[in-house]
Amino acid sequence: MIIRAKTKTLFSGKELTARQQKNTQLNIAEMEAGKRVLESLPRRLVLELTNACNLNCVMCGRNAADFEASFFDIDDFRSFEPLLDVVEEVTLMGWGEPTIHPHFGEMLEIIDRYSARKYFCTNGMTLGKIKQAIFDYQVDVFAVSLDGATDETNACIRRGSKIDVIVRNLRDIVKHKRDNQLDYPWINFVFCAMKSNIHELPDLVRLAADIGIEEVKVVYLTIFEESLLDESLWGEDELIRQFFEEAILVGKELGIILKFPHYIGEDEAGDKLHKDCFVSWRDFFLGSDGFVRPCMSTPVKFLEYDRTKDFLEIWNDPQYQKYRTIVNDSTKMDEPCTRCYQSSHCNWNRRESFIQTQTLFSPDWEKSR
Question: Which CA distances in Å does 71 have to 106, 286, 365, 366?
Fold first, then answer.
């Protein structure tokens, strides 16, 4: 089964409550009508717990940016509790490794009091420490970033990563899930495809099946530093097709769901600057530095988060309203959107989605408080 990037829809794990369904239906209706001022709440809260990390991946944009580490304020986190029976999902991810936040377990416990699904993306090196929390707080879905099927390739790219440690802990998690006949967590690999690792994609699908992981997601590498230009798959159509097609055959044979980007030149966005973007209707993103942004893939900052304000006042801030009118208009959208590299919305027919050198692609990451 091949899935392309989703936009309007989110992961469909546990059934939504009546209250969640009502908000989701209203949100989709307002999105499709292009409303500037929303009565609905977002369907997903995306909270960047930190921009710090326990690895030093060669392709990470932090290596090409002015970086100052910050951690999400736990009191800000608690301020979202009134929303957690209405939104569909809380996503814990951003530019850093969320599981190293000192309150990560507490945050899962808080979400677990409510109806929202729990999702996080990890490099996998802390799974041994959080295995119990995954089940104690019923994490619905998590993704593990792995950029090779062998330790040699993965560790070369994701410096500090150890594939044997990650695989061992994943096997433990899958065993516990099966032994207890649980339908959670849904687990997937996220693979950043580049010249030096794309040949291992079919074997990564085999590894996922061997462990008992349900899905492998692939994104193309976006390059922020000129030193990595030789890793770009831009213009490497035959190479991409060769290993994608092999991985697809393996996935069909082993029953692994594959979430792949379009081939270059075949993206559904055609000649648009990016696919239609629904983030400013569907998602609320708050960075670890305390600033509200449209999404993690832009340097644009709307405003500093103020937990004393009514959430709908923030959600309908004039900057949000303006963004909802310009984000899909090629004549009006802001400059970072014209070169979108957000994997669900960018246009993989465009060179700009693959190469972002000499551009302002990330926030300044100054601490707000």
Answer: 14, 11, 11, 12
Please report, as a single letter, which amino acid is at residue 63. Answer: N
Cis peptide before 299 (omega within 30 of 0): no
| Eight-class DSSP state of 42 | P
Closest CA to 342 of 140, 143, 95: 95
Q: Give the C-alpha distances (Å, rounded to integers) separating 45 from 49, 88, 111.
A: 12, 8, 11
Quote the CA–CA distance of 277 and 300 in Å, as a whole number.
Answer: 15
| Distance in angstroms between the alpha carbons of the first and the last residue of the chain | 46
CB 232 within 8 A of CB 355: yes
- DSSP letter at 71 equals B
CB burial of residue 150 (10 Å; 0-12, 13-18, 19+): middle
**Tell me, what's the pLDDT at 64?**
64
Strand partners, 142: 120, 187
Q: Which two tokens stand for residue 329?
A: 């208009």
Nearest to 221 by CA among 256, 251, 195, 252: 195
3-state secondary structure 274-343: ECCCCHHHHEEEECCCCEEECCCCCCCCCEECCCCCCHHHHHCCHHHHHHHHHCCCCCCCCHHHHCCCCC
Identify which has the larger pLDDT, 166 or 64.
Answer: 166
Give the three-class secondary structure for 137.
coil
pLDDT digits (tens, 9 = 90+) for 264-318: 999 999 999 999 999 999 999 999 999 999 998 998 999 999 999 999 999 999 9
| Pairwise CA distance, residues 190 & 148, whole Å | 10
**Which residues lie below 8 Å from residue 140, measured CB to CB, with a gap of 6+?**
11, 13, 14, 89, 117, 118, 119, 184, 185, 186
The rounded distance, in Å, linking the Cα atoms of 192 and 198 is: 9
